[in-house]
Amino acid sequence: MNLETWRSFTPEQARTTIRNGHTGTTSGWSDGWAQANLLAVPREQAFDLMLFAQRNPKPCPLLDVFDPGARSSSRFKGDITTDVPAYRIYERGTLVAEETDVSGLWRDDLVAFLFGCSFSFERALIEAGIDMRHNAAGTTVPMYRTTIDCEPAGMFASSTVVSMRGVPADRVPDTVRICARYPAVHGAPVHVGDPGLIGITDLDKPDWGDPPVLREGDVPVFWACGVTPQAMVMQSRPEFAIAHAPGRMAITDIRESELITP
Amino acid sequence: MNLETWRSFTPEQARTTIRNGHTGTTSGWSDGWAQANLLAVPREQAFDLMLFAQRNPKPCPLLDVFDPGARSSSRFKGDITTDVPAYRIYERGTLVAEETDVSGLWRDDLVAFLFGCSFSFERALIEAGIDMRHNAAGTTVPMYRTTIDCEPAGMFASSTVVSMRGVPADRVPDTVRICARYPAVHGAPVHVGDPGLIGITDLDKPDWGDPPVLREGDVPVFWACGVTPQAMVMQSRPEFAIAHAPGRMAITDIRESELITP
Q1: A125 lies in the same domain as A220
Q2: On chain A, which terminus has fewer CB atoms closer than 10 Å, C or N?
Q3: Which residue of B has its CA nearest to A45?
Q4: pLDDT tens, A236-253?
């Protein structure tokens, strides 16, 4: 199978392929369907996480929250414990394992949260003729810790993690305008220009992902990033958490067209 | 004082006036600032309520959620136990009292939820030349129980309560277009036309508010309504809840202009 096949998959076909052994990225899969960041925490911490998401909608835009213990929902009709290519397991904020199936680790008190993913706004930008440099280079978008604090909630606090994409100066306004219409997938950028102003000392050394690809005349543009919930887990150390591995997302039954504001 | 004075109040001035004894409606107060529906429930039920709001954003658009026990927040800088003109107290789903001050009833485990209010989209419609019939008549907008079920969450279930406004047939498209840009205050209407299709048998007998005011050529237009959380309390019977009295809202520090989608 190749990208053209993956691109045309229904969410159900994509999830079946993943369940049957695909462990790589889901970038480009299931055109037109929203992909999501996963974070599952025990019911005991779920109210605080929901409050954190409510207060920080740019890094944590909620697409769906499952019932406690549930492995699926009306917006994700697969099995969340087998249908994500790879998972990260955290105990008291420490990454202890990476797994491709967490059906044996799932607990009756775990609450799965799905957060919007930048793949959706990237597609909208590409359609508008704004290239994604990291796609052409075959790399993962660079992500950085910043000095932009999230609003804390209960036990949870974190700085905002951002992703960075280089955009030609004359396309920056279109980039902002287009992304602003997608609040459910991080929305408008949070910063344009000088990385030092948000605490990034060396653009070439991201905290996650690959070094940036910038062309002559590109302005660095920064978006709140779905890795923020994992940074929050590392900082706030809940007893247990399961997240997706970067780039290996949950493919939902939500159409991207539903995520555009009127 | 008159409506022109109230209209020009800052949120702080409005809350002080209410704290000092105003017990009537807040319709028309603090032009440009969002007013909100209040529902406070114990921490034990707060996750379920948050899940209910997440799954039913049209009747329950979340503007803010306070920390457990808190009486204020960054988006409501007053005292939520004294700065709403009148409160309704529910015990196991039964309305047991109406009070003008609940500072003595507040508990350390109560979580206050603020939901968007139709006053905000009404102002936008009036600015577009779409009259609010009930304002001219000096009545309260009619509200109805419907057969449109909310998606349940944990202990909470409810049918959707709707408000109804008569709109000239040629202004219905503008009405939908304008309201769709305000998802945080109920958003686009949920139904246009025949009330029978959503289980309303007699338009002249609303479940809350006053009988409708319709002019020749008006189409009945229905919006999801902020009374839905109180209907949910009556149906699902949490141990304890405090809500605002209809039309007597919490005046927030959120600018209405922040609620418009890009």
Answers
A1: yes
A2: N
A3: B47
A4: 999 999 999 988 999 999
